[in-house]
Every structure is written in structure tokens, then in C-alpha cells.
Amino acid sequence: MTTSRSTADIDTLDWSLHMKIGILGVGNIGKTLAQKFSAGGHDVKVANSRGPESIDAEVLKNGAAATTASEAVRDVDVVIISVPLNRIPDVVPVMSEAPRDALVIDTSNYYPMRDNKIEALEQGQVESVWVAEQLGRPVAKAWNSIGAKSFAINGTPAGTPNRIAIPVAADDPKDRQATMALVEETGFTAYDAGVLAESWRQQPGTPCYCTDVTEDEVEHALATADAARSPKRRELSVAVFAERYNDIMVTPEVDVAARVNRAIFM
User: From CA 180, how far away is CA 23, in angstroms rounded?
Assistant: First the structure.
């Protein structure tokens, strides 16, 4: 069981104003989050496992600060964890430095060939439920269902026709609301995907995963997800991209990724 939020102050925070955000992981998704939120005027700290001196200047171009992992999570309103799933155990001691009432958002996805097999997930446990158990904290799930290149270039203002949607799951409705506000800031329509136990519907192999579903498509995509078939579809997608690019964990071009994943997942 995860611990409950003790003295959360979500009600008193205006999520459209200046926030203090710590990001663990500066891969493709973490990098774009750092750039978008620092450009939006938020106080952003970023960290990786190799130390602040190893963080590329491109990540910091809009004002994010490179720090150690422990410093990144201290005195923040939001912690975003954007690391490979098998690195979550390394994050656990770092999170002891984070405020107990910080909103924690997980962007990770399970790929057995990269993360090594995690038995609980192989047996069907929902990925972010497992993450919450490891951390001993409530988490929200967001930004995991969009391809890295699409996330970097396809954000649009609210009201744009066919705007891409990103599902958000969390057990606490206030956590969902806060995370959805942050998703909207990054240029995508936030869709309330319910509790964390339902976030398997946005995991790899499902119809809304890296298919650039729009506001009009996301509800149906989540509803038609198939828990039994999605791992098989995930592996098929990996095989297709590996054959095309000779790399099992390639980040394909935006149009290719969405087109191939739609054919396999939807």
C-alpha cells in the first residue's frame, strides 16, 4: 500500500502561477519538460544519475538549473520522475529529501528488454501502481503516452483543432487536477483518466500510447484498451522499429511513430 498524502496543500496552490519543479531524469521527455516549464516562468531544477556537470546546455537553455538529484527534489512543489523504470529503486532514497506534500508525477514506461524483467509487472501489476509502492508515496501518471519527438514539437494552444491529448491518472482528484493543469501548460489537452489502477490503459501497446490521439479520440482509445493484448502489441511495435532502424529502443520520426503505432495498437 502507498502512504496517503498527509498535509497536502494542493487546495491553496494556484497551478497556473510560478511553481518550483524538480525533474529527475533528462532524457527526451525530461529534457522537453525542463525546457517548457522553465520557458513558462517556473523555477526548474533538473538532475540525472551522472551529476550536474554532465547535463547538456540545451536542457538548460530556458533557465532550468542543473543540480544533484537530492537538491533537485528539495523545497519543491512538484517532483517529476522521468527515468527508465528499472532506475526507480535508485530514486527511492533521493525522494526522502522531497517534501511529503509535493506532487509526484511518473512519466515512465516498462520495456522488459531495457528494464530487465520486473516480475510484478510481468504478472500484470499496473506500472505506476508499482512505482507508487516503491516510492511509498502517491503518484500521478502523465506524459508517458506521447512520443518524445511529438512531445517536443507538437504542442499547441488550447482550442487548436485536433489538439493532441494526454491522459492523466491519479488516485487523489486534486493530484489529477494539478497534473492536468501542468499538462495543459506543455501544449496538450489533459484528459482525466481516473485512478492509478486504470493507468494501464495508457501503457505501451494500448490505443492511446504514442499514437497522437486527439481530444476527440482519447476517450474511445482508453475505453478500448486490452490488458491481455497490450504487452504483445508493445513487443510487436518494438520489433517493427528495431527492424527499420536496427535499434530496439530507437526514437522514430513523429509521423512514422504515430502511423505504425496506430496500425498496431488501435
Answer: 17
Alpha helices in 147-253 (DSSP H): 148-153, 173-185, 218-223, 230-245
Over the stretch 107-153, which tens digit does the pLDDT of each residue have?
999 999 999 999 999 999 999 999 999 999 999 999 999 999 999 99
- Measured CA to CA in angstroms, residue 5 lies from 21, 76, 99, 116 at distances of 18, 15, 11, 31
> Residue for cell digits 499547441?
156
Question: Distance between CA 139 and CA 182 in Å, rounded?
Answer: 14
Phi/psi at 45 (nearest 5 deg)? Answer: -120, 140
123/132 Cα distance (integer angstroms)? 17
Rg for the chain, CA atoms, rounded = 17
pTM assigned to the model: 0.92
List CB contacts of 162: < 8 A, sequence separation 6 or more. Answer: 214, 215, 216
C-alpha span between 261 and 208 (Å, rounded): 9
Specify whether the CB–CB gap between 131 and 81 falls below 8 A.
Answer: yes
φ, ψ (nearest 5 deg) of residue 115: -95, 0
Contact 49, 82 (CB under 8 A): no
Give the full edge-to-edge strand order of the sheet including 43-47. 65-66, 43-47, 20-24, 78-81, 103-106, 140-141, 165-170, 189-192
